[in-house]
Structures are given as structure tokens and as C-alpha cells.
Amino acid sequence: MCGRLNVTDSSGVRALCEQLDISLWPEEGMIHRRFIRATDRVSVVLKRDGMAQIHNAIWWLLLDSQKGSQGSIFKPSKYTSFNTRYDKLTKRGSAGYQAFRQQRCIIPATGFGETLGSGSDAKYHDLIAADDANPLAMGGLYRWWKGTRPDGCVFYEISCSVVTVPPHPKLEAIHRKASPLMLSFRDGSIDKWLDDSLTNTDALLSLLEPKLRHSFVVKPIDKPSTHNQVGESFVIDADR
């Protein structure tokens, strides 16, 4: 998966939050932007003691802490971690191993972007979930980071990554590498992933197989920053 998300204030995103019955919202509100890139802030949903909460997290799982005149500052680590590969989740010592067991989240999204090729040959596509009645959520991981303010008060920063699974054959024409873990209410995968009482992750392994739980409208664009359509849109249907 390429590092860009589309999280607009759509009826699908609103429906997902309503179904989760969020108990805690960030003071600054949920983040809505058409183009959210890796290292930006993105809104994530997690559960603590069975209650769903939204937090605005840095989209980069591993952070470095620096101390300055304004207290602790957290910045993305030099180690690329906006995605966490499925095969790393069961590998002891990997960045996502412990989070997979204790700190799973979802990222509500309208859609996401993919890239095929590189440089001047790169081709860009935006994928938008086609059915607001079946809201899109990316399966992710999160971590808490403890810092201090100049007055000595403790605060916490939160970071996240999107879990990626093997490439899906239906996405081959737009991206041939890993695809994001996409979850849905319809098959119970959102509830299972967010269940903070579930620490035996054997029950989650079946979710790490490539599966399209949503249909997508795919739009070819010139590049993410300008977002000009350069070809006909087409539909990729959900798996049956």
C-alpha cells in the first residue's frame, strides 16, 4: 500500500463512527482531508476496556523522542513504519509484534491511493469505497509514547500504522505489492479486530489473507497533489 489516505466527512465515515458508538473524541475533532500522507496525523479508533475512542495519531508507528525547550518532541523514526506487513505480526522482536496482541486500531477512511511504477512512469489511482452502507476501515496498530512538558507534566503521543496483507489479484492493474487490510461490519471483521479482550491472535490470522470486503470506484489521476482525472473511472467489485 502507498502512503496516502482519503478521509472526507462522508456519510460512510459518519456511519462507521455511529455504529461504533464512540465514547471519547479528540478535542480538535476528527481529521478530514482528501490527501493524508504518511507522517501526517490521521484519526484512529481503538477500544480501551471495551469502549471505542478516537485519537489523532501520527501515521508512523515508530517515533523518536527529542527534548527541547518546549518539552518532549516526537518525530517519525528513520525506520519506515507507516505500514506493518502481515508476516511481521507474528515475528518476535518486530515493531508490530506486541501491538498486534494488545494495541489494534482501525482507520476510518473514504478511500486510499495506490501507485504503479515509479518516477516518470508512475501511474496513480484513487480508490473510493462505493457503498456508504458498508463503511471502509483499515486495520491498523497503535503505540503510546510518554513525554513531558516544560513544567514537568506528563503527556502521551500516539502513533499508528496500517497493516498490509499480500497483494490482491483484483488490484494488480493499479498496484502489485501489498494491499491494506480492509475491514467491514458486515462480516464482523471490524469488531473482531477492535476487541481489546482478544489477546490470542490466532483468531485474527484469517483476517490477514487478501480480501476485498468493499467495492471501489477507481479514478486514474495525474498525481496525488493536483488530483486531476486522466482517464475513465472504473469499478472493482468486492469479493463474494
Provide a compact summary of the structure.
This protein is mostly beta strands.
Notes on the structure:
This protein has a single domain (4-110, 137-210), classed as hypothetical protein yedk fold, CATH 3.90.1680. With 240 residues, the protein is mainly beta. 9% of the residues lie in helices and 41% in strands. It is globular and about 55 Å long. A hairpin with a 5-residue loop joins strand 11 (136-148) and strand 12 (154-165). The two termini are 22 Å apart. The strands form 3 sheets. Strands 3, 4, 7, 8, 11, 12, 13 and 14 form an 8-stranded mixed β-sheet that branches. It is built from 3 helices and 16 strands. The longest helix has 10 residues, at 11-20.
